[in-house]
């Protein structure tokens, strides 16, 4: 059975949902501009982590917090597996559905997925885990719907590992990004939320520990682009 969110978690989810609804029309443009288009390469690497599953015609892959569907569509490109996406923000899903009918989308909260136990072969989530009201509960929910031996792939903002680069990136992330994001989207508060959410999110090694405490084994990570993002992978126990 899906887990049940507390009242405070529901309030957090509602606030985040409204925030993303407000920036949905400019979300893709800003993702590409603010990442210097590197976000496309990151999503390709996520797909590469589960390539053998994507090549399995009997497999089912769930892209959680899929937003406007860019990762879902990357996963579906040339895949034999069945891909579907979930997100709790309808305006984001409306944009995803306009892009292609190759992927079915379900409006659902990641903390309480309307999906049977042990029914999915792989779960991906890109830049969505840190937005959950309860990271651990989200991971436990992913473990619930994954089959034993199923794969989890998390793409998230992380801590830069290159000496000196962290200071430069922090300045960009905390001062430049909110200004540009706010000017283009008209919702500066959403792009002030972004660096705040990253600061409160577990860094690479801590996230490995958290994942393994929530029903997974063999968790690990690899840094991308100097560690500003990292791909975490794990196997359902």
Structure description:
This protein has helices spanning 7-23, 27-34, 39-49, 51-54, 70-76, 90-99, 135-145, 165-185, 188-199, 204-212; strands at 60-64, 82-87, 105-107, 120-126, 146-157, 216-224, 229-236. The chain is of the alpha/beta class and 237 residues long. It has a 7-stranded mixed sheet, with helices on both faces. The longest helix is centred in the C-terminal third of the chain and has 21 residues, at 165-185. The model has no long low-confidence stretch (mean pLDDT 94).
Contiguous uncertain segments of 5+ residues: none
Structural class computed from helices and strand pairing: alpha/beta
The major β-sheet equals: 7 strands, mixed
* CATH-scheme architecture: 3-Layer(aba) Sandwich
Query: In CATH terms, what is the fold-level topology?
Result: Rossmann fold
Assign the CATH superfamily.
Vaccinia Virus protein VP39
CATH uppermost class: Alpha Beta
Radius of gyration over C-alpha positions, nearest whole angstrom:
17 Å
- How helical, in percent, are the residues? 40-55%
Please state the average pLDDT score: 94
